Amino acid sequence: MAEFKSGFVTLIGRTNVGKSTLLNLLVGEKVAAIANKVQTTRTAIKGIVNRPNSQIIFTDTPGIHKPKHKLNETMNETSFASIPDADVLLFLIEATSEDIGKGDRMILEKIKESKRKTILIINKIDLVKRENLLKLIDIYRKEYDFEAVIPISATNVKYREIILEEIEKHLKEGPAYYDIEEYTDQTMRQLAEETIREKALKLLQDEVPHGIYVEVEKMKQRKNKNGEEIYDIEATIYCLRESHKGIIIGKNGEMLKRIGRAARIEMEENFGLKINLKTWVKVKEDWIDNPSIVNKFKLQ
Questions:
Q1: Is residue 181 part of a domain?
Q2: Residues 10-34: tens digit of each pLDDT
Q3: How far apart are the C-alpha atoms of 42 and 296, rounded to whole Å?
Q4: Range of the domain at 141
Q5: Are 240 and 287 members of one domain?
């Protein structure tokens, strides 16, 4: 009988390279917020993949970027803090790069220091010509002895098995750390907050900068009059400016209703029961520099 392997794998890369999309692809469930915006992931989110002979625990980290606030600094710290604990690193870069940029160079130096087993994942290969991709592979191969280099498109399910098999090769014999039914260690409260924030970012597009965070104030399970299980969730979307509040609420409250509706539908799918969601919007100026709030985004 084949030995059972387990291990921790950290996804690391610059902002917006597709780490959360890749995590969701590998786990096969929606565990990380995806929006086409910088810094969607603020905390280190874990996703769990159970295979016949292995359990792989993934950590999706915030994208590395130039810090402008206390929040940005904390996010970078969280990303780098997860490197030494990983059995394998997945270093995600974009195929459209022509050389090693500043952000990728910073990550590469941390990988070199750690001497961790690292798989280089080159995302968005559909956007480049083959010869450009080969040049990029050559540049990175000269920098570090990667266990493998895998060019992918993170939205295409055909790459899932290729990556998981490659990771499994580099894991050691070990126990299953989580129940095989689990796919994330995030609580339902955290998943609810992530879902609401993702829907807000997607629907607001560029109208409100990244300065929003969501706090679930109440989460209670009950049965409705038909005997169905239902979750009452009350959440507040915090923003930095009074002008942002107006945009999030929208004319006659329409935007807030759209955010709530989209979040509720996805949560009902993910949680497998009915959701009664109420949302509010409040202004909390300069929360991005408030340590008591920002510390929530540190690696636990």
A1: no
A2: 888 887 788 878 888 888 766 554 4
A3: 9
A4: 5-173
A5: yes
